[in-house]
Amino acid sequence: MRGLIIRSTGSWYEVALEDGQIIKARIKGKFRLDGLKLTNPVAVGDYVILEMEGDAENTATITEIEIRKNYVIRQSPRKKHFLHIIASNIDQAILIITINHPKLKQGFIDRFLLMTSPYNIPVTIVFNKSDLYNEDDLAIYQYLKTVYTSIGYNVVLSSAIDGTGIEELNKILQGKTSMLSGQSGVGKSTLLNAIHPELELKTQELSDFSGKGQHTTTFAEMFFINEQTKLIDTPGIKTLSYNHLEVMDIAHNFKEFFILSENCKYNDCTHRNEPKCAVKESIANGEIAQMRYENYLVILEEVEDQNYWERNIDY
Question: I want to staple 31 with a disulfide (CB 3.0 to 4.6 A). Which of 11, 41, 211, 296 is the partner?
Fold first, then answer.
């Protein structure tokens, strides 16, 4: 039988069969992704082949994972030598953030885009809780909107409280399989409930003590809005690291840097200290956002430091 993974809870998966029936399944054998170590070889969005186990509980075994058209992967937050697939076979990603409540982490947007850029997955960046923005927050939003729309990303301002952006987001989601992600506490579940009240997702207030978000989504889960529209809700992200990427992977997946890199003197230019670097010239001319470049340098340094120890670790 063929099915679609709609929920991952660790060792068991919920699978939607082609007749609409939902069953539980587990993995048979070991699955790897291009030789990489994974905490979850099967992800929400995967199409799989199943064999029924013949018991009274209507469970099945996953014997095969169909070829993915794409996937979104990150370093496992719990096992730093492993990777975790967040979702697969998606048409677009919706990154939900907010300027304040909780405060936007510098560089978080660019780190997220490093997960989607390798597969050219379209991303809409949603600045949520706009009803709480003061003049300074709105100025930051306008600046970030200019930066990211200029390099091809869609940007939306939203609020579940006053309805800002709800209709626009609903149109963006229609007819597609969308992965929704964001930092903990940005109001993702509340926003989804405003767009589609029938979901009735659990919500939770920010911690009064820390001001940080608390997890309301424990496992990735797919929701069917209609036959053509599917939403994959994912747990809140706290940190993003990349033990599977090298320096040139980072350079190639900052969109505007890659376009300009053909004009650099060296083919393997990392846009740091090399002479006649087209990217650095564009930054000096104000054509590339200094913020993006600073985030790029920080990520490069982290990747080099972490991957040095990764390559020299004694297993």
Answer: 41
Q: What is the pLDDT of residue 60?
A: 93
Beta strands in 102-235 (DSSP E): 123-127, 154-157, 177-182, 221-224, 230-233
DSSP lists the bridge partners of residue 232 as 179, 222
Domains of the chain: residue spans and CATH: 2-65 (2.40.50.140), 82-233 (3.40.50.300), 247-312 (1.10.40.50)
- Residue 248 main-chain phi, psi, to 5 deg: -70, -25
Percent of the chain past pLDDT 70, that is, above it, reads 88
- How is residue 176 written in tokens? 């597609």
Nearest alpha-carbon partner for 71 in 252, 289, 244: 244
Strands 230-233 and 177-182: parallel
Lowest average pLDDT, out of 136-150, 208-222, 277-291, goes to 208-222
Per-residue pLDDT, 209 = 34
What residue type is 219 in one-letter code? F
Whether a cis peptide bond, with omega within 30° of 0, leads into 77 is no
pLDDT of residue 75 exceeding 60 = yes
Tokens of residue 286, six digits: 């104000």
3 state DSSP class of 84: strand
Per-residue model confidence (pLDDT) at position 284 = 95
What is the reported pTM? Answer: 0.89
